[in-house]
Amino acid sequence: MNYATQLVDLMVQVMLPLSLLVCAGALWTRFFPDTDVEQMRSSLNRLVMYLFYPCILFAVASSTPISRDLLSVPLLVGIASLISGGFLYLMLYRLPLWPGLSDRTRAALMLGGMFGNTFNIGAPLLVFFFGAESIRYAVFNDMLMTMPLVWTLGVWIATRLGSHDGDAARPSVIGVVLTMPPIWAFLSGFTCQQLGLTYEPLVAATRFIGQATIPVILFVLGMTIPWRNLVPRGEILSVVGIKLLLTPFIVWLIAPLIYSPMGEAQYAAVVEGTTPAMMTALLLADRFKLDSGAAALLIGWSTILFWLTLPLIMAFGWISRT
Description:
Elements: H1 3-31, H2 37-62, H3 68-94, H4 103-114, H5 122-130, H6 135-163, H7 173-178, H8 181-194, H9 200-210, H10 213-224, H11 234-258, H12 264-273, H13 280-287, H14 292-316
Helix pairs in contact: 1-10, 2-8, 2-9, 2-10, 3-4, 3-6, 3-11, 3-12, 4-6, 4-11, 4-13, 4-14, 5-6, 5-12, 11-12, 11-14, 13-14
């Protein structure tokens, strides 16, 4: 399949529905001005956190055997995220590029630039490139890389480099994990798979419920992006460049050094690296009193420019459809 055909297919099958869902969230208050946006966002996020997302995690974990290739995805994306974080630290904290930025702004941008929206945007991309079963790469990347790093290193960045509130403001990582239904759903599914207790009708049922995860989150993303305040700022666009271009390049560069020749899983890791900033960056900014406005702008600009950088990455040949 040539590049032009592949790009058209991508635009119709993936970019169009993702864009429509984000636009629906963005335009919702225009057509329904009586909407309590904060309440609606909070309710939808809870619905995803307590029902939809745990269901898809259980379905995938309970039907997916662990393999070396599967584990290569969180490993490669994790390495690239840490290297990108090093570049972000130098750019935001050590180089005199934007001396007027507060530490709260720098930490919010660093968090958003390190971690991508690897499930809600990554999963549809993986399905397009590698088929329906490839959603497992997004699930295991979220559970084994994103979530552990966010609630350890991410919290350290927020409290030590950003808010400076010290240990008193740092939540117990174990306490956070114990209160997160997605973790328990993933562990339950993983245990069932390892013990040979997978029950296909239950897998099908939870997968059906979990299909609502991505549409709902993308709708909320549209409500979250500050569309009227999307003014280009040098520090925001620089972080976006690292997230959307440098991170996947690092994955593509280091993958053949560890796994040669590269297979589907390693190219899936490149796809995961292309994703825009995660929405959790805004949650962390709110929780630890960082610059929420900068986090929201970063999410907005990275989501918009992702529509341009992904075709560029495809043109480079870093990823292609099987």
